[in-house]
From TrEMBL:
Occurrences of domain START-like (ranges): 1-126
Organism, scientific name: Planktosalinus lacus
Gene3D superfamilies: 3.30.530.20
SUPFAM superfamilies, per database record: Bet v1-like (SSF55961)
Protein's recorded name: START-like domain-containing protein
Highest classification ranks of the organism: Bacteria, Pseudomonadati, Bacteroidota, Flavobacteriia, Flavobacteriales
InterPro entries: START-like_dom_sf, START_2
Length: 128
């Protein structure tokens, strides 16, 4: 298996952290912007796009702050994806921090994918 590169992205979002957390941590919230449909059974989340399914295991979460998944296809690796809410202590600006892994030749494409999906999230939340 080809080694993947870790990357992080920051998306400023003008919304309350508690509302944002609902959209990144619940199947119904994720279904609105990340995938066509999301189902969960315990710690397994099934993400559905255009009829194809990918299953991810919930690796950890901290209420109101972050959620971390590992795709089942990446089991046995250190690869994961995490969405973390960061609030600036002084300005109170809210950002969604995304950590993910990608093969080098798909890095730009994966970053663009995150840009597009988070743009959809901002649109749903009414954030600019």
């Amino acid at each position: 298996m080809e080694a993947k590169t870790k990357f992080e992205m920051e998306f400023p979002i003008q919304v309350s952290p508690s509302l944002l957390y609902q959209y990144i941590s619940t199947p119904s919230g994720l279904s609105e912007w990340y995938a066509d449909n999301v189902n969960s059974r315990g710690e397994l989340f099934t993400f559905i796009w255009n009829g194809s399914e990918e299953t991810a295991k919930l690796m950890g979460k901290k209420s109101g702050e972050r959620i971390k998944f590992k795709w089942m296809a990446d089991e046995g690796t250190d690869y994961f994806f995490e969405m973390r809410i960061q609030v600036d202590e002084i300005t109170k600006d809210v950002s969604l921090m995304v950590t993910d892994f990608s093969s080098e030749d798909e890095l730009d494409e994966n970053k663009m994918l995150w840009d597009n999906t988070v743009s959809e999230l901002k649109h749903i939340l009414g954030s600019t």
